[in-house]
Amino acid sequence: MSSAPLADTKPEIIRVRALRKVYHTGDVDVEALRGVDLTVARGEFVAVVGPSGSGKSTLFHILGGLAPPTAGEIWIDGVDLRKMGESERTEMRQRKVGFVFQKYNLLPTLTARDNISLAQAIAGIKTQLVGFDNVLKMLGITNRLDHKPRALSGGEQQRVAIARALVNQPAILLADEPTGNLDTANSNAVLDLLRDLNKRTGQTILMITHNPEAAAFADRIVYMRDGRIIEKGDG
Fold it and tell me: Alpha carbon of 120 to those of 5, 12, 104, 160, 169: distances in Å?
C-alpha cells in the first residue's frame, strides 16, 4: 500500500504528499524517501515502524523542520513548510513541535526544572502555561524537579525530556525511539505515559520506532521500508 490515509474524520494536523528526500554523497545519490504519502488526524497517536534505513528517521526530521525535502508537499498544523524560511522553521520547532529523542539530551549542569524552563526561554515564553502542573503530575516527576540528571534514573530523565517537549504546548509531539535507552519496565512506563497523555489531553503524537511492541501502544501503525510506506494497521 502506498499511503496511509486519515483514520477518521478528525481534522488533519499532518499532511504529506509525494514526499522525496535525496542525499548527495560524492557522486552517489541516496534516495531516503521515495514518494511518501501520510495523513495524521489531530489527536491521533501514530507509530511509524521500520528497520534501520527504511526512511523513518528522515521522515521524522523533515516533519520537524530539521531537514528540507527534495520534493513533495508538507503541511503541519495548517502551515506549508515549503514556503517557510529558516527563521520561520525555527519558530515552528519552538512552538508547534515538541521533540523527544532516544538520548534524553538534558543539560547535566541544570536541574530538571531548569532543563524544562530552558525550552520556554528559547521560545520567548516567560510564564508557565495553564495546566502544565497537571502534565508534571501525570509524568510523575513533580518531586524530582530540583534534581540534576545524574540523580535521576533513565526513566525519570526521559520523563523530564517529555515534559520539556510539552512545556510550550506543541501541536505535535514527535518521538524518535523514545524507549531505546530504557529497560523493559521503564520502556512500558514511558509508553503508558505517552498513551495516557494522548487519551487525556488529546496531544497528537507521532512516534518513530523499530520495535513492534512499542508501536502497539499507538492507535495506528504505519510500516516503512526502503523509503516507502508499505502498509498501515491499527494499534
Answer: 34, 27, 17, 14, 10
